[in-house]
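Minutes, project huddle
Topic: does the predicted pose make sense with adenosine monophosphate bound?
PN asked that the exact inputs be recorded in the minutes so nobody has to dig through chat later. Recorded below.
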Amino acid sequence: MIEPLPTGSTIGILGGGQLGRMLAVAASRLGLRVHIFEPGAQPPAGDVAHAVTTAPYEDAAALKAFAEACSVVTYEFENIPTAALDVIEEIVPIRPGREALRISQDRLVEKTFLQDLGLTVAPFADVGDAAALDDAIARIGTPSILKTRRFGYDGKGQVRLNDTTAPADALAEMRGAPAILEGFVDFSIEVSVIAARGPGGEVACYDPGENVHRKGILHTTTVPAQLSASQRTDAVLLAAKVLNALDYVGVLGVELFVTPQGLIVNEIAPRVHNSGHWTQNGCVVDQFEQHIRAIAGWPLGDGARHADVVMENLIGADMDRVPDLAREPRTALHLYGKAEVKPGRKMGHVNRISG
Ligand code: AMP
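Predicted holo structure (tokens), as shared on screen:
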């Protein structure tokens, strides 16, 4: 068990993007403070935080001072340098724990972990060089997808292979980075489960959401997803299996492919997740508050869904639609306060509720 943090305590968040911002808002509603650590200037989370440290992850002195100002530290993205975590963990607990980070930072380690748990993943093979790629293609075949093992997000660092792709060209796109080849999954839909595990090991899952991507970026999440009752149960049970195996504390996103043969796990994200933003307007307690509750040692909240929701991401020039969106009934607007609009940049989202 973890002693619940009293109100007024400070939670540290590594990363100052929109996820950090929405975590900070949720923490403030519970009477908690947030301290953001972010290398970039003017982080979106900084607008709503009690304190901000602007320093690189290599700055041990800044990390030490940050950790000393916090009662617990969490993170809003996976790719935090290990050395930075070492400095922080000497001083204050990191939740979720580091095993979840270690596993989710590397697709090969992640797939192996999931498979060892008895979950189904796409066929995969380690691709260190051209010979390994030839072997992998011989075993897995095409269509398949070559992905960098690390630092991939929103479809970046991925190339699809079909039977006319020259393996050397695909490998060149990895720019020398270690990669894995994954068999292409012929899925009917993509869904995700946002799951939480509390300090005493209790697990609570949100209803699975159905995700549609555009250009590798999440476009919409629709809840409820088109799943049978048994698929819904499977999705929740497998998310709980992952949480328990990691002795996890906090919110975790599990992305799944739905196929006639069952659910296939694509990836896990040890943090609040874009496909869980619908919970802000569809649930009694949303994913951000749930994460803060868990890492602060509070009881998990009631994640029951009280509405059907379609979440739509606002990407780049979608910001031009904000005046119209602001007039729409039954639509909640969530903007991230990012100064500069860039193509492909997540600027905000809307939650349209019905039911
Ligand atoms: P990822 O970065 O691994 O989440 O992949 C981004 C998107 O690419 C996924 O949401 C899927 O739409 C698609 N994708 C990734 N891996 C596969 C796969 N093995 N088979 C089919 N589609 C995939």
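Observations noted during the meeting:
- Residues 122, 145, 152, 155, 182, 184-185, 190, 213, 216, 255, 266-267 surround adenosine monophosphate (CB under 6 Å).
- The longest helix spans residues 229-245.
No decisions taken; revisit at the next huddle.
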